[in-house]
Amino acid sequence: MESFSPFDKEMANLIKDYNTEELIEYLQNNLKLIETDFDIFRKERITGSVFLKMTKEDFCSIGFAFGPTMELTNFIEDKKLNTPKSNTELVYVFIDNSNLLIEGMYIVGDKEKTDAFDSYKNSYIINQLHLDYGRLLLTVLHKRKMGSNPVIVGSKSLDNDEIWSQTRNLGFITNVFYQNCENKEKMIDTTLVSEGVDIIKTNTPGILVLVAGNDNYNPLIIKALKYNWKVEIWFWSSEYLDFLNLTCLFIT
């Protein structure tokens, strides 16, 4: 299912607190049951919380005919499917390394007023930026537990092999594209989105931590929110005070 209905989520929570008569009134308005069916609800004192846990076998065992049994069972299953799972608060980290390095080179260059100046962006820039990816991971985790290995996506050139050795040794799942390949940046964005969607669809909701500074990941963010995930976007802060100064935007 592509998205969850807020109405179904709200109704499932309401039904859970219904007493027997409130449940009967709700079912009378939504299902094609007859009075003898509701008499069974009264006889067995079925409340909303009990009702949502009942199975086909349960309905049959207390005297419901096959038709009402299937209607009630399907109704319950539909409510369960349309109610998002609770959030585990486990953290899943995704890093766009190309974006992280490029933005960092401008932020650091502008604060240190280096010799190189990019007139197009009206900003100073440094030629190289070396990051401690272990420290980066600790920064975004902030003492929280990970749900899976962190994912990093970027491009490979002759002078950045050590990045990928370092990240692999730290347990990162790495996706690397050669710098001269066609549509490299688009492939990086697409790969990160694909990896993120796979995690979202196959895991109980947690916290999606995205280290990137552009808006190419809106589809991933929208998907995560639909599936009851929390989202954090980490990006370089212009208030550069340390070699690694990131700001976090929380989306829930």
UniProtKB/TrEMBL annotation:
Could you tell me which residue ranges the NYN domain spans? Answer: 91-235
Domain of life assignment: Eukaryota
InterPro entries noted in UniProt: NYN, SAM/pointed_sf
What Gene Ontology terms describe what this protein does at the molecular function level?
RNA nuclease activity
Per its record, how is this protein called by name? NYN domain-containing protein
Q: Which organism is it from?
A: Diversispora epigaea
